[in-house]
Amino acid sequence: MYEKFLNEFDKKLAAYFERDAAAIKCKKGCTFCCENADYPLSLLEMKYLMQGFLKLDKSRHGRVRENIRNLMSRRTSVYPCPFLLDGECVVYAYRPLTCRIHGLGYLRSDGIVKLPECAKIGLNYSENFDGHSVDFEPIKEDLNLDKIFAAHPELEFGEIRSMIDWFC
Ligand code: SF4
């Protein structure tokens, strides 16, 4: 059931990325959003992510485990994702929703336009944002995780934690 949801969700996000293509700077090799975040994800997403983790070959599996150990020994609020190896997501098909959404700007239900963190460093939507306001028509869907989870109670997403906290 979750994979069916992901298929539909990915199609919708692809249309949003296409709609805002002029403002999107995402490209292969850019890993900003995988290096500076806390990656909140639900129990359901974590179980799915673990399916991808278990499929890794021995070498990559070991490197991810080492990354996790290092992160746990020096816990910080934002950190590089342990699944980023050599600038590549090694669990891409299994990545959490926050990774799929990241990069898009959208209108939250409280009326605030949410821009991705990379807007602050000259990437996505940076040309549409002067530090105070935006000059573009934002996607009119609140893509915050709590809204998505609430809209799909049948999937039973479960508890949400920062990624590293699932390993503690
Ligand atoms: S799971 Fe993959 S896409 Fe998500 S932050 Fe980690 S490396 Fe990046």
Model description:
This protein is mostly helical and 168 residues long. It has one domain (2-105, 154-167). It is 35% helix and 8% strand. It contains five helices and six strands, in the order αβααββαββαβ. The protein has helices at 2-19, 43-54, 58-73, 97-101, 145-151; strands at 40-42, 84-85, 88-89, 106-107, 113-114, 160-162. The strands form three sheets. It has a two-stranded antiparallel ribbon. The chain has a two-stranded antiparallel ribbon with strand order 2-3. A hairpin with a 2-residue loop joins strand 2 and strand 3 (88-89). The protein is globular. The two termini are 28 Å apart. The model has no long low-confidence stretch (mean pLDDT 94). Iron/sulfur cluster binds at residues 34, 39, 81, 83-84, 89, 91, 95, 99.
Spatial strand sequence of the major β-sheet? 1-6
Structural class: mainly alpha
Using the CA coordinates, give the radius of gyration: 16 Å
The low-confidence runs, each spanning 5 or more residues with pLDDT under 50, are none
| Percent helix range | 25-40%
Strand content: 5-15%
Total count of helical runs of at least 4 residues = 5
Overall number of domains: 1
